[in-house]
Amino acid sequence: MGSDHTRPAPSAPPRVRRILVVTVVPLFVATVLAAVLLWPRGGSPQTDGGADVPRYPGTVTRVVNEPCPPAPSVPEGTPRVGNGRCGTVDVRVDDGPTAGQQVRTPVPDGPGAPRVEVGDEVILVELTDPTDPSTSNWNIAEHQRGTPMIWLAVVFAAAIVAFGRWRGLAALAGLAASFAILLTFVLPGIGAGRSPLLVAVVGAALIMFVVLYLTHGVTAQTSVAVLGTLGSLVLTGVLATIATAATHLTGFGSEDATTLSMFQGDVDLHGLLLAGIIIGSLGVLDDVTVTQAATVTELANANPGLTRLQLYRAATRVGRAHIASTVNTIVLAYAGASLPLLLLLTADARPIGQILTSEFLAQEIVRSAVATLGLIAAVPLTTGLAAVVTAAGRTDAVPPADAPAARPQPDRSEALAALSSPRTAGSNKPDRQRAAPPPEAADRWPESNRSTDTAW
Q1: What's the rounded Cα separation, in Å, for the pair 305 and 395?
Q2: Which residue stretches of 218-337 are H helix?
Q3: In whole angstroms, what is the distance from residue 59 CA to residue 355 CA?
Q4: N or C: which end of the chain has fewer CB within 10 A?
Q5: Measured between alpha carbons, how far is 206 from 208 in angstroms, rounded to an integer?
Q6: For the stretch 49-65, what's the b/e string if a residue is b when 16 or more beta carbons lie within 10 angstroms of its beta carbon?
Q7: HSE on the CB side for 435, CA within 13 Å?
Q8: Closest CA to 341 of 257, 269, 272, 282
Q9: pTM surpassing 0.85?
Q10: Contact criterion met (CB below 8 Å) for 161 and 173
Q11: Low complexity bias: where (predicted)?
């Protein structure tokens, strides 16, 4: 089947393989060396995040709702903080030094407070009075989410393996490798004070090498996708640097960035913004580059007579359709992640021009635009490389034994003669009114119901 990309692609000519090895291997070695030089040493810097509050799992055994006391008068227009829920909750501590003990907590109230019922598994925090360490209060922090998330992860992995089989298992391994690189190199490296842009580019390249070759195998097709992804990543980084400098973005475009600056003042938030654009673009780029490389390979297998230019044009048409849908995906993904911010901006009374050019919204616009430009550049870059690699050496190659026979091309002169020859009298009549064919025509057409029109 032409759409089955899991079958192995035909081996590239030896000269092409040597060129790919000479190109890809130095890039991989340079990426590994850069990762070794930038690898954080001595652990991440400790931040002053406050005292560590003990947290214990517990199970709700009783909920008593009570009417809330009258609220004190507040000035008109003051936002309401609580939800008006009062009462007590009895919780059995399931682990820790007080395991098995029943504790009483107030009903959770306030923005984002969980709603609890009997039988819910929750997380308890014990707050000790600084003036009297022997006095402590218990509160419900949140629900326990470990068990549902484990089951969700099991269903997720089972679905991928059931549909993708060995390729799905390789995809799960690639996903684990991506998280390992992010958690052990990218995030600690940025936290240690390294350049966020440099760490993001090296980390993204490392993820790309590991995931693509692990998922799709060490083939010429995968090498083309790697080169296309790496070139597009570099272009995305350059465009992001120019765009953020031209729009004077500082990186303080979100509450999370502002909070991070208070706990880790030495983090370059502008560089962190660039790093986020690079990491965010990688997931879409490898999808496009792998698809384009596979499309060129399948087109060449379906019609070995296609030239490089024909392969490029045909695969580019597929890439245009892919880009048209992916651009909308990028914008909606960023909009979904920033939905509370967008909702807050819609309530702003300022003119729309001021809202669009504000730091909060301009950051998301620049992020989407730069990622889209890098994505568009990935299509011609990867398609051109794939067309060159796939068509190399095909003129001297012997077609495989199971290759379908080429369709015979009609003689143009015979076709023109057939079209220009006068039709016999009665040819415009219905079939049932036409004269019977001569005996020699009947000999040429064994089937009685075949057409008796002039043969091409």
Answers
A1: 9
A2: 220-246, 255-263, 269-302, 308-337
A3: 46
A4: N
A5: 5
A6: eeeeeeebbbebeebee
A7: 8
A8: 257
A9: no
A10: no
A11: 397-408
CA dist., res. 48 & res. 265, Å (int) = 11
Structure tokens belonging to residue 12: 């590239």
Report helix, strand or coil for 225. Answer: helix
| Dist CA 327 CA 373 (whole Å) | 9
Q: How far apart are CA 266 and CA 191, in angstroms?
A: 9
Using the structure block, give the residue that is written with the tokens 């990543």. Answer: 233
Selection from 150, 155, 90 nearest residue 120 by Cα: 90
Q: Residue with structure tokens 């023109």? A: 416
Q: Which residues contact 194 (CB under 8 A, 6 or more apart)?
A: 38, 40
How confident is the model over 190-234, as pLDDT tens digits?
888 888 888 999 999 999 999 999 888 888 888 999 999 999 999
pLDDT reading at 160 higher than 70: yes
Write out the E strands in 43-175. 55-66, 86-93, 102-106, 121-129, 132-143
pLDDT on residue 350: 75
3 state DSSP class of 454: coil
- Which residue in the block uniquely carries the two structure tokens 């007080």? 98
Amino acid symbol at 77: G
- Please say whether the dihedral angle defined by the alpha carbons of residues 42, 43, 44 and 46, taken in this order, is positive or negative: negative
* Six-digit token string for 261: 């600056």
- Cβ–Cβ under 8 Å, residues 261 and 252: yes
- Using CA atoms, how far residue 305 sits from 16, 111, 382, 407, in Å, is 19, 66, 21, 11
Query: Is residue 4 predicted with pLDDT exceeding 50?
Result: no
